[in-house]
């Protein structure tokens, strides 16, 4: 098994979390996004969208982190990361989509703005993005009331949020004390071996 990977990409991290949770061995192929290697003809033959991650498993070539993780859960079902009932599976998929489009992407905009030279940072925009992130966390806190994980059992839904949850403080997002359900959820996630492994990879352990 081979993963085309850029270590700092939250979408690559999302896949590496699943690979670690299932204790699957694989080879990493570094794709340097800073040098636009994802736009090379060789890479575009794997993923015409020119994005990481891409997984190769025997003859299968799969791109998009959500599709990769669902493939991994189908092909290597232990431990299972999606519930059996179709309604719960749909909720997992909806949370994954929500994470990708309304949380990870928003955190990415915030990260990009903060990495600009100091005199070019739009501080109003930073506050706006931080407010958007907090609103997502408020939504999740309401949903997590009385639950340990987003869809009852630990699943791909939780892992979709994990990469950016781990760097909230780096993004200048202070978790309000009122969001106690989210706070407890983040603590539970951080104690899982797959997340501990990612933290070590990121030198955050």
Give a brief outline of the structure.
Helix content is 54%, strand content 8%. By secondary structure, it is an alpha+beta fold.
Describe, in plain words, how this protein is organized in 3D.
The protein is of the alpha+beta class and 205 residues long. The protein has 2 domains: 2-75, Glutaredoxin (3-Layer(aba) Sandwich); 86-201, Glutathione S-transferase Yfyf (Class Pi), Chain A, domain 2 (Up-down Bundle), CATH 1.20.1050. It has helices at residues 10-21, 41-46, 65-75, 86-114, 123-144, 156-165, 180-190, 193-201, and strands at residues 2-5, 27-30, 54-57, 60-63. Strands 2-1-3-4 form a 4-stranded mixed sheet, with helices on one face. Strand 3 (54-57) and strand 4 (60-63) form a beta hairpin. The longest helix has 29 residues, at 86-114. The radius of gyration is 17 Å and the shape is globular. The protein starts with a strand and ends with a helix.
Strand order of the largest sheet: 2-1-3-4
Q: What order do the SSEs take from the amino end to the carboxyl end, as H and E?
A: EHEHEEHHHHHH
Strand content: 5-15%
Main sheet?
Answer: 4 strands, mixed
Shape: globular
Sequence stretches where pLDDT stays below 50 over 5 or more residues? none
Instruction: Label the structural class.
Output: alpha+beta
Helical residues, percent: 40-55%
DSSP, total strands: 4
| CATH class annotation of the largest domain | Mainly Alpha
Return the CATH architecture of the largest domain.
Answer: Up-down Bundle
- Given the structure, what is the number of helices? 8
Cα-atom Rg, whole angstroms? 17 Å
State the end-to-end CA separation: 27 Å
Mean pLDDT: 96
